[in-house]
Amino acid sequence: MLDPYQRPPPRYFTHAVKHFGEFMSQAKTVAQHKLDGTYQPCRHDGVVQEDPAESKFPSPPDWISARAREQWNAIKLEMGSIGIIRIPDRAVMIIHCELFAEYQECPREFPASKVAQLRATLNDLYLTPVSRAKMPALEAKKPEGGFASLMN
Question: Assuming Cys at both sites, which of 11, 32, 39, 80 could form a disulfide with 57, CB separation 3.0 to 4.6 Å?
């Protein structure tokens, strides 16, 4: 028999836990809203601000190997202008670049467990075609002129 004082959780609670794991932990930044396509100036201007230090591409640490530094610079060249990889992603970048450098030295002796780690970091950094296809859409610049110029 059910205890009358113990009620089941409401439906909206189980829905939130089922889809999000837990309640939302942090608010999205303005940049995240723009990438997700949910940015609304009336709701997001001046409300959730992004730390300008986090928007920069991370710099490599001094102690990484020369091959790892080459990989770091190659990723920065390709992905730096997009703005997806930021300072909080520095640890993933370090792991990826060191694993990639180790793979370049001797690919035949590279264990399968490290291949799995390398593939995971490739996906985390949007460096595979499949992960780039899942990447949030970047905001396209609207062309000036035409009807937009008449509205000003």
Answer: 80
**pLDDT band at residue 4 under the 50/70/90 scheme:** low
Give yes or no for a contact between 135 and 84, defined as CB atoms under 8 angstroms apart: yes
Q: Which residue has the higher pLDDT, 60 or 54?
A: 60
Helix 66-79 with 90-105: angle, nearest 10 deg = 120
DSSP state, residue 125: T
Write the Ramachandran bin of 89: left for phi over 0, alpha for psi from -120 to 50, otherwise beta: alpha
Check residue 19 and give its pLDDT: 47
Q: Measured between alpha carbons, how far is 93 from 114 in angstroms, rounded to an integer?
A: 15
* 95 contacts 126 by C-beta, under 8 angstroms: no
State the residue for tokens 């792991």.
95
